[in-house]
Design a protein that fits this description.
Layout: E1 2-3, E2 10-21, E3 27-33, H1 35-40, E4 46-53, E5 56-63, E6 66-68, E7 73-79, H2 83-89, E8 96-103, E9 114-119, H3 123-132, E10 137-142, H4 150-154, E11 160-165, E12 172-173, H5 176-186, E13 191-195, H6 198-210, E14 215-218, E15 234-237, E16 240-243, E17 250-252, H7 253-257
Parallel strand pairs: 9-10, 9-13, 10-11, 11-12, 13-14
Antiparallel strand pairs: 1-2, 2-3, 2-8, 3-7, 4-5, 4-8, 6-7, 14-17, 15-16
This protein binds FE2/S2 (inorganic) cluster (FES).
Amino acid sequence: MWVEGMTLPKVIEEARILSHETPITGVDILTLAAPMIAHTALPGQFVQVSVPADTGFLRRPLGIAEVSRTDGWIRLIYRQVGHGTKGLAEEETGAFVSVLGPLGNGFDTALRHPLLVGGGMGLTPLLFFAAEHPHVSVLMGGRTKEEVFWEEIYRPHVSECFITTDDGSYGAQGFVTTLLPTLLRDGDYDGVAVCGPSVMMERVAAVAAQYNIPCEVSLERRMACGLGACLSCAVDTKSGRRKVCKDGPVFPAAEVYGDG
Ligand code: FES
């Protein structure tokens, strides 16, 4: 079904679950047959997935982690954080879910050698970027070794993979911002794309600004409609109030953080 009023066509697909994996407790990887969305989706965009809830069905925004345009599937990687995502996690292979998308504006991928910086589940939309770009590096952070299960998923897609953990159980001890200044000083990166907790994104944007490297951030907000109609996702930026679902979720850091 085509949804009117969008600059790009959005569709609702009744998508069959092709596989459902659990890399660590509380995190799910769903691969869905959604050929129309897979065909047009761009890195940084998201979908609204209809999930069972006590009161009926709710749509939940989830970043697109990967697509196969030839095989017609999209992959979602998400943490179970509420009724919606917990309900979705109970769906098994072969079940159908309703998916609306692709939504929002994605990353600028026209870069020679971008550095992707992700923390926790912020690595989801950046994975799509990595999979679509021929020469990309990633800096990933997690609290523990278990939380950087992403390394195995990213390795086939990236030139370099740098890892930090808060507790030092894997990679360098510290935060992504512990390694970032050295990487930006010694590397040949011409852009930074970051997604993760807001404090992390703001700090990454500040470091990128110090090195005069353009930085984009992917914001996360509660979203009701996902289509620019309800204002539940509004955010104040240097260019006024913007809707994360429609004007973002990807914004230039300088627009969101001022000096970023
Ligand atoms: Fe409704 Fe963004 S979620 S306007």
